[in-house]
Amino acid sequence: MPIAIAGEITGIDVHCYLVKDPRRAIRFYRDVVGLQLTRELGSSGAEFELPDGSTFGLWRMEDGSWHESRGVMFAVEDMRRTLAGYRKRGGSVVGDVIENDHCLMAICQDSEGNGFVLHQLKRVKAA
To answer: Whose CA is closest to 110, among 69, 56, 52, 59?
Structure first.
């Protein structure tokens, strides 16, 4: 099995989700999640550049095929404040916020049926 050699892979350019209806998905991620739309891809989708320089994308397959996407965890600084705003804009959380020793996670679902996580790392206090 091939292994990436250090320095060949430098990061992730874009994490993309498949969508059924690009307009509806763009409205959800822009208006409910609060991401800044940076590039529309015609009727195929869009990209949102995040403050850290990473990109989240939405893409509609030419043949209309779709499958659920998962795996993206959007970093947040203050889970309580983020969730209050998210819920006020119509977003919902599946279940309770999960807390462990190093983070808080809120499992969410978008307008297309894709899952995503709002994720807050806990800051480790120096001894």
So the answer is: 69
